[in-house]
Amino acid sequence: MQELDRDPFLHVADWQFNLISVFDELRYDRSDGDYLSPAMRNHAVQKLQGLGFRQISGTVIENRAEDVRILIPKFHALGASPFDATRYTAKRPQDFYLLTPTQTACHFIDRFDTEEAVERIKMLIARQPINVLKIDDYLEDKPTHSAIKDAIGHLKYVQRMAVESEPLMGRRGLG
Predict the structure, then answer these.
(1) For residue 123, which of 24, 25, 4, 11 has the smallest C-alpha distance?
(2) Which of 57, 62, 96, 98 is the most exposed place for a label (fewest CB within 10 A)?
(3) What are 80-103's pLDDT values in tens digits?
């Protein structure tokens, strides 16, 4: 799976929770949908085939020899919270989720303390920008989310610097 990190559009963003993030865009609007587009899915499937994976359904890519599956959470509704992306998709410990960068950042916010979540999000942004405003819109009234709300301005700055610099500056989305 480390081979995926050589691809500019794919990133194993977290080994503890087995998250693979697919690059989407450099710039977002808070009203943008947050789901894997067909181009994003196709790119991931193509790269994973080279690692012995085969798509067995619309939401499962499997490597039987290694007993590993890549799960693509189903898109349930327009306006769905990126914090809920994996809520209805159970996985085994060895399986991976294939997510958007924004969904990946939300996963960090819900699973790590604020300082670590912010650091992980900053590392993600350096490779794959996120929809910071959408995250801000979906933060709930709970302590972990309130602490992240204080970091939104800093994350917007980090992202602006990242997209104005290489390697992101000239990158185009998959479609």
Answers:
(1) 11
(2) 57
(3) 899 999 998 999 999 999 999 999
